[in-house]
Amino acid sequence: MIKTSLYLSINEPKWEKALTDNILEIAEETVGLAVNFIQQKEPLNFISETKELCFNLCLSNDKEVHALNKEFRGIDKPTNVLSFANIDDPDFEKQAKKQKLLEMGDMIIALETMQQEAKIKNISLHDHFCHLLTHSVLHLLGYDHLTDTEAEHMENFEIQILQLLNINNPYEE
Q: One digit per residue, pLDDT tens: the chain, 173 residues?
């Protein structure tokens, strides 16, 4: 089993009321399941049982995510989740060989956008939160959805990981 750690910061106080469950426990379980699922399905060469993978999660709002989306992606609007993957650094694999604690990157989720999407899809905030977090973790592990093939591959993994959390397929209409 791969060891994971999660550092959680809550920049938007409304998160505490939105998800009444223990946010940290939910997030830690989701991250751990996602990492271990991927390692079973498609082992990543930088992951081993002697390493610990560290993820940073910020729970924020549309205003902050909008500013980051504009600055880093050139898109002038909020989005549900942003992922800043350290695996994209050209020196990542070289550094990963030397370190026992691998900093995988940062994730930030916008509360208002997440709430609007959950309402439109008629799903619980808990389920949508777990989906966005799973999606983001996969980005930090090197997965993307720039092509249809990549998107299908990533979505299939998301569906399977969410099933482990007893969450329905988020892509079903």
A: 899 999 999 999 999 899 877 999 999 999 999 999 999 999 888 888 888 999 999 999 999 999 999 999 999 999 999 999 999 999 998 888 888 999 999 999 999 999 999 999 999 999 999 999 999 999 999 999 999 999 999 999 999 999 999 999 999 86
The structure tokens listed for 86 are 């350290």
**H helices of the chain, where?**
15-18, 23-41, 62-73, 92-98, 111-121, 125-140, 148-164
- pTM value is 0.96
Domains and CATH numbers, the chain: 3-164 (3.40.390.30)
Q: How many of the other CB atoms lie within 10 Å of CB of 68? A: 19
Give me the residues paired with residue 59 across strands: 10, 109
